[in-house]
Amino acid sequence: MTPMNPLAEASAHHTRRQFFGRSALGIGTAALASLLGRDALAATGRRGVPGLPQLPHLPAKAKRVIYLFQNGAPSHVDLFDYKPALRQWHGKQIPDAVAGGKRFSTMTGNQTARPVLGEITKFAQHGSSGAWVSDFLPKTAAIADDLCFIKSMHTEAVNHAPAITFFMTGSEMAGRPSMGSWLTYGLGSETEDLPAFVVMTSRDKEASCGQIFYDFYWGSGFLPSKYQGVAFRGSGDPVLYLSNPAGLSREVRRGVLDDLARLNEIKRQDFGDPEIATRIAQYEMAYRMQTSVPELTDFSKESPATLAMYGPDVRKQGTFAYNCLMARRLAERGVRFIQVMHAGWDQHRNLNSQLKIQCEDTDAPSAALVRDLKQRGLLEDTLVIWGGEFGRTPFLQGKIEETKQWGRDHHPYAFSLWMAGAGVKPGMSYGASDEFGFNAVENKVHVHDFQATVLHLLGVDHERLTFKFQGRNYRLTDVHGHVVKGVLA
Fold first, then answer.
1. Dihedrals φ, ψ of 132, to 5°?
2. Furthest-apart CA atoms within the chain: distance in Å
3. Do 313 and 230 touch, CB atoms closer than 8 A?
4. Are residues 182 and 161 part of one domain?
5. CB neighbours (10 Å) of residue 188?
6. Which of 55, 166, 236, 347 is deepest in the core (most CB within 10 A)?
7. Domain shared by 158 and 292, yes or no
8. Do both 454 and 377 map to the same domain?
9. Positive or negative, the Cα torsion across 295, 300, 303, 309?
10. What's the predicted TM-score (pTM) here?
């Protein structure tokens, strides 16, 4: 007779009743925390899904985030970081004392001639804050007193995918949880009818750059997959399979889901796999979204003035304008993290033509979102972020005489982004770069500092929101990051 595997033998003698008896404290505590969390939400008149019981760590200024991520990297020296020296040095070699020994992408890494390229836009100061903004962004300039510009951002990556991954996950390598996943894991959701973390993507109409939206930009990494972002599609139903197949009523679908849930629960109890619980939750969310999503995407009750504010593309599904209005509608329905990604800013050889087009597509919707939130009283507890993965070089990629092919390479050493809303000082510029916009020199803000600050505004101590994986406690900011107190209201 073949001897029984000792692990299998122990499992056979370990009855279900004994398992629950010995594990009562852990399971009971988790179940009680979940029930109490839901009861607490119900007591406040809100429905939602609780997060970790120990969060928030500190009083939160923001309840939710709308991140308008500009894939491809907007040129800071043409849009926000006005540097008169660029015009003075136009066509001259950038000093070695500034650019010498720096790492760039392969497109200019071996380029010996690096002539300074003056800004191709016109700058002016706006609002009582006197913020410098390019004339390519008139709508953004008009809300300058609502914005907090950070002009001393710097990062480490020199190529798009690692740099975007770094901003979104805290690591240049794919596989870590994204910021939205961390926040929904820690803080839960204020809605049961929509995902806590929603992603929408768009790109420039001309398809001028080949930026790809990788799933790991909103992935959950080693966190349970129920915390990953739900990507809404740019055409048709925002999420597949929301509509019932022909001949299947909602009541029949409900019965099928109930039966599936019972079968999945049996397997979950047998194996203890958290992904089975995720599958159950996904089925239930999909069922609820059959009702919530059609209402969400119905713009018929939006006023003509609101629609006009977002621009002519607001009714075109898959555009940046459409996604910005959707972001506001998602925010007012309790979605925790809304990631709106727009590609097209990678202007290596078409700066003179494509930069203006990109600004025309994104300027009005971005400003309209801030205005719209403010008018509705939502900006008080919504954090809006606008920016890319790095900046663009103050020197030219290519030859100065080839005007139609002017461009700028990737630039990680100094760039700009703006924030607005909950807990952020409005009408200010924080930090500074040198006279060429090349290096951050004053109140420098690293990507991890930015991430720590975003978490802080949501009531999360970035050093205490951790998850143990492969024997190590991980966090969004890895082992780095400091809250940028200078931008806090």
1. -80, 120
2. 90
3. no
4. yes
5. 20
6. 347
7. no
8. yes
9. positive
10. 0.87
